[in-house]
Amino acid sequence: MAVLETPRASHRVRVRRTPLTWLRGGGLSNLLFAVPLLFVFGAFSWWPIVQAIVMSFQKTNLVTPALFVGLDNFARVLGDPLFLTAVRNTGYFALLALFLGYPVPLVVAVLLSEVRRWKGLFSALAYLPVVVPPVVAVLLWKFFYDASPTGVFNVVLGWFGIGPQPWIQSAASAMPSLVLEATWAAAGGTIIIYLAALTSVAPELYDAAEVDGASVWQKIWHVTLPQLRGVLLITLILQIIGTSQVFLEPFLFTGGGPANSTITILQLIYNYAFQNSLGGNYGAATALSIMLAVFLAVLSFVYFRVTKAWSTN
Amino acid sequence: MSLTPNLVETARVIETADSTALLAPPSQTIPAKGRASARRRIQAEAEAEDRGIVSVADWRRRHVRWPLNAGHSVLLVALVVTGLGPILWLAKSAITPTQDTLRTPMLVFPHGVDLQNLATAWTTVHIDVQFVNTLWVALGSWLLQVLVAATGGYVLSVLRPKYAAVINALVLGTLFVPAVVLLVPLYLTILHPPLIGTSLINTYWAVWLPAGANAFNILLVKRFFDNLPREVFEAARTDGAGPVRLFWSIVLPMSRPILGVVSVFAIINAWKDYLWPLLVLRDPAVQPLSVRLPTLQQAIQLDVYLAALAISTLIPIVLFLVFQRMFLRSAGLGGAVKG
């Protein structure tokens, strides 16, 4: 190792840097290997991010030259009556998804981790909905949600003597229906993450708890859950970050209806930019995305602070 | 470009990277701490076979065994109904005449089977075109992501020019920017791309190129390369291998496991993505299944439409059943699989 280092070290001291030494030192091949990354990230990540910030302060429609308008776009978005509706709806979606989608995977994963035979079958079944392409899942459920008495879910409810439900047709039940499908589609992934976390709980902890005479419930409460708190917090914050950007379900199920009861922030951004075929209000769209991004950045900051605190404990 | 927040993926990787066999390099040069935790993990896994929350002694107790067995039976029924049920219903309805599905959706073939639906969906509705398009989208995204991740990881981790730290910081920085922010400016970039001059709308490059800019892949591959043994590189250099030779003959063969993970994520995301291809692939002739299916609904018979949905689901499910182990391991690792 030391022998190998010597020539390079002396090289650095002795030679003045010229293009030729740069070339001999492998500078060109370094750059060539970096080209794919630099090109793709430069053109399709870094530059658009800069553009997004600039555009949020501009009035632009791609035809006339862009005009700087200060905070007008932000004022326009905040003054839009749909803005509050979209924020409320997104918050409602996130809250329902939390109540429905957060405890279910945990209970399933804990129960599943104690299965002794056909464990692979159990986890494969739990994961199966995740494999269905999201668009197909939504379109399929849209048919299930048919509000007529011969709709799939209404027929099933009929077996239990429950009358037909309006599902996505009514403003009151539309959002819960969306959350139900979203939970079905996503729970499998969370279950697998919890299962992985459950296998990493040190068995000695359970042994120790048994020596103290702990029952199964006490072991779950005093050993399993505290051991999972890290991963539970991560999935919680990640779920909030994910649901704040929900788009597919409202867009394909209801298009934001009925009566704007399912319009979400991302759908509002989409509407600003792309709904009008004559040219979108790109300024308002980017201004709203920047606001959402700042909110998510605060969340992820909290997330990193908290995980750091957990891991140093 | 997937609208899954990048942060989700990173966070899970950072969290699970150390506890995952997928990320361990094929050699023994795991740093001491990693090796210790790896040993602990193997040990833990071996013991987990016999022991979880419920001990062997617990299993012998009647008031534990019976409720637990009952709970497992309920769980199995619930998983079959919710996990398998909708998919079986779709498979059944794909070969059921429209009127039967509308009137009696829960009866199994009251008036016989109509296999013609599948053929109509494939040939007359031309799901075959969308199917091939989906394959193109997935193939190109996969190739570009592997290319960018492998060369990028190589520069940042092995070659390490002076500017590597800056690039690395800029790449990691994009993980904190949610994809929503990119939506509009990226669309405008595709409309008026730099250097090329002509619009990329309705070309697959519009999907492939943004998919290549995946910081999560770079992070994965760089972390993997960082753990490869430096001695091998030094030995190859002393034997006169240049950077290209080193990349092609040493680094690439050693990085097969991590490129496999990148490939799984790339192909699954390409198959699932909706909003971005919807924006940039306006022409039905180039649209993948995910974009085309919602527009088909009004245009065609219900039975053929359901057959089209079933065909679109078939490949992902077959892939899952064949590579089940890899899927579940990747899901535990990344969660990028999650939409």
Key structural traits:
heterodimer, A: 313 residues, mainly alpha, MetI-like fold, 15 helices, 1% strand, B: 339 residues, 18 helices, 72% helix, flat, disordered N terminus, disordered C terminus
Produce the secondary structure layout:
The complex is a heterodimer of chains A (313) and B (339).
Chain A: H1 2-14, H2 19-24, H3 27-55, E1 58-59, E2 67-68, H4 72-79, H5 81-101, H6 103-113, H7 119-131, H8 134-144, H9 152-159, H10 171-199, H11 203-211, H12 216-243, H13 248-254, H14 265-275, H15 282-312
Antiparallel strand pairs in A: 1-2
Chain B: H1 6-16, H2 32-48, H3 56-60, H4 62-94, H5 98-103, H6 116-123, H7 127-159, H8 164-174, H9 179-191, H10 205-212, H11 215-226, H12 230-238, H13 243-254, H14 256-272, H15 275-280, H16 289-299, H17 302-322, H18 324-333
Helix pairs in contact in B: 1-11, 4-17, 6-17, 7-10, 7-11, 7-13, 7-14, 12-13, 16-17
What does this structure look like?
The complex is a heterodimer of chains A (313) and B (339). Chain A is mostly helical and 313 residues long. Chain A has one domain: MetI-like fold (Orthogonal Bundle). Chain A is built from 15 helices and two strands. In chain A, a hairpin with a 7-residue loop joins strand 1 and strand 2 (67-68). With 339 residues, chain B is mainly α. Chain B has a single domain, classed as MetI-like fold (Orthogonal Bundle), CATH 1.10.3720. Helix content of chain B is 72%, strand content 0%. Chain B has helices at residues 6-16, 32-48, 56-60, 62-94, 98-103, 116-123, 127-159, 164-174, 179-191, 205-212, 215-226, 230-238, 243-254, 256-272, 275-280, 289-299, 302-322, 324-333. The longest helix of chain B has 33 residues, at 62-94. Classes of the chains: A mainly alpha (313), B mainly alpha (339).
- Average pLDDT of chain A works out at 85
Q: Report the biggest beta sheet of chain B as strand number plus sense, adding barrel if it closes.
A: none
The CATH topology name of chain B reads: MetI-like fold
Named at the architecture level, the CATH assignment of chain A is: Orthogonal Bundle
